[in-house]
Amino acid sequence: MALAHDLTQIVPGQFKGRLFTKGHIIQEEDIAVLLSIGKEHVYVLSLEPGEVHEDDAARRMAHALVHESLTFTEPHEGKITVKAAHDGLLVIDVQALQKINEIGELVVVTKRTHIPVKAGATLAGLRAIPLVIHEEKLAEYDRVLASTQSLIRVVPFKPMKVGVVTTGSEVFKGRITDRFGPVLREKFDAYTSVQFMGQQIVDDQTASIIDAIQSFMAKGADLILVTGGMSVDPDDRSPGAIAQVATNVVSYGMPILPGSMSMLAYCGDVILLGLPGAVIYDAVTAFDLLLPLILAGQRLTRADIAAFGHGGLL
Ligand SMILES: Nc1nc2c(c(=O)[nH]1)N[C@H]1C(S)=C(S)[C@@H](COP(=O)(O)OP(=O)(O)OC[C@H]3O[C@@H](n4cnc5c(N)ncnc54)[C@H](O)[C@@H]3O)O[C@H]1N2
Ligand code: MOO
Question: Which residues form the MoaB/Mog domain (predicted)?
Fold first, then answer.
């Protein structure tokens, strides 16, 4: 007799996985093993018209999600795992995902949207909940997917030339050692698409900051970071300097903590990002949320920044 579905064994701390695979023909020596995982009965499955086995349901769900940035495993215990085909920014259509999970009897579970992911990283799992699911549920699933361009995708990072302007008389005059350079270099190292152009350390003069920004622009920078001098002292000149160079200030101040004194602006297509002192102190700040989106080529709006408030307390 053939098994109608994968059979799972769980030994806490040691193993969780398939002990028998769907379709396995039960042998006499299997009986003791089946009893050891609590299977005193083995069921015969006969599908009615319109009913779909969990493995086929998962395959159909995966098929509808196919995208060049994704790979899919075979069903294991009814579940298919979705992985990243390459590095990039994970982008989920959260509204469509909500609708899918309201259908019932099937689930799509993802990592949070807008996080950086590496090739091979697990992004999502999908499955039917009962062993047999009605065709109508899958039709509803297909209808939701027809309303979105892609439910799950990975947007590759764009090659970007990045320059750093560091302000602060204490650093410029050598009273303290610069920490922004090493911290930012380490963060850039996680992205092979970043070409680091260099760092200019300047005093707290608006004109010096503007000169440094413009010299990076003249050399073809895509992204210019201005560090320090972002808060409330009269000699905090970075926001003013960025605003003078910019053609569009998206936001000075962001609903993200730490990093609330960050600033995002554009001069044409060049991205100008003001980074406050917290970035050299806290392991995770506004910068870590913004960088992957910027590197994936997303042009951020005020609404995008405002949306960080939910979950922005890091
Ligand atoms: N009264 C208020 N105080 C502060 C506010 C505020 O709104 N009202 N905001 C706070 C927030 S939030 C942050 S973050 C910090 C830092 O803001 P800044 O970006 O203006 O930082 P600085 O004043 O330039 O420096 C602060 C601190 O960090 C050291 N620093 C700066 N750059 C470097 C560098 N390249 N290498 C090493 N160390 C650096 C600097 O010497 C200071 O010690 O402001 C809060 N305060
Ligand atoms: O701007 Mo501060 O970076 O919120 O801690």
Answer: 163-296
pLDDT in tens, 247-305: 999 999 999 999 999 999 999 999 999 999 999 999 999 999 999 999 999 999 999 99
Q: Measure the CA–CA gap between 95 and 144, rounded to whole angstroms.
A: 10
Pocket test for ligand 1, best of 179, 261, 262 (most atoms within 8 A of CB): 261
Task: Please work out whether the CB of residue 239 comes within 6 Å of at least one atom of ligand 1.
Answer: no
* Beta-bridge partner residues of 186: none
What is the 206 CA–ligand 1 centroid distance (Å)? 17
Binding site membership of 280 for ligand 2 (Cβ less than 6 Å): no
Mean pLDDT of 207-217: 98
| Nearest CA residue ID for atom 5, ligand 2 | 258
Q: What is the DSSP-derived secondary structure letter of residue 313?
A: B
CATH assignment, 49-155 = 3.90.1170.30
Which are the contacts of 57, defined by CB distance < 8 A and separation ≥ 6?
Answer: 78, 106, 127, 128, 133, 137, 138
Q: Which helix (H) or strand (E) holds 302?
A: helix 302-307
The confidence score (pLDDT) of residue 23 equals: 87
Inform me whether the pLDDT recorded for 185 exceeds 90.
yes
Nearest CA to 287 among 207, 228, 213?
Answer: 228
CATH 3.40.980.10 fits 160-309, yes or no: yes
Once rounded to an integer, what is the mean pLDDT over residues 25-46? 90
Question: So where are the chain's domains?
Answer: 1-46, 49-155, 160-309
Backbone angles phi, psi at 263, to 5 degrees: -135, 135
CB of 201 within 6 A of ligand 1: the answer is no
Cα gap 167→204, rounded to integer Å:
6
pTM above 0.80, yes or no: yes
Reported as a single tens digit per residue, the pLDDT across 44-68 is 888 899 999 999 999 999 999 999 9
Complex-level ipTM beyond the 0.90 threshold: yes
